[in-house]
Design a protein that fits this description.
This protein is an all-alpha fold. It is built from five helices and no strands. Helix 2 packs antiparallel against helix 3. The protein is globular. The relative contact order is 0.17.
């Protein structure tokens, strides 16, 4: 989901190299955790939290379009909200993480 949001931001002329760098870091952590060398639930919780950041970024960049029916940005934000917390372990980590 985060990659789709960042790709859309690039397409619409609002690229964010910093968010792409964070995406790579989180993707690497997920890959590492799937081999048993990390906490998969923590990695997935971080990825879910980042997807919110990426969705917020593209929604902000898109402005009014982000609430227009049929717009990719609207679908991304809505789709993310439906899949964010897929397991109790991920939900627990998201809920207990301190956010600024």
């Amino acid at each position: 989901m985060a990659r789709a949001c960042l790709t859309e931001s690039d397409r619409t002329g609002h690229p964010s190299p910093q968010l792409w760098e964070t995406h790579t870091t989180i993707r690497n952590a997920l890959n590492h955790a799937t081999t048993g060398n990390g906490d998969i639930y923590d990695a997935r919780a971080r990825a879910s939290h980042f997807a919110v950041t990426a969705a917020t970024y593209i929604a902000t960049a898109a402005g009014n379009r982000s609430v227009t029916r049929g717009e990719p940005t609207k679908r991304m934000v809505r789709a993310f909200s439906m899949v964010c917390t897929t397991t109790p372990q991920i939900k627990s980590r998201i809920m207990t993480t301190r956010h600024p």
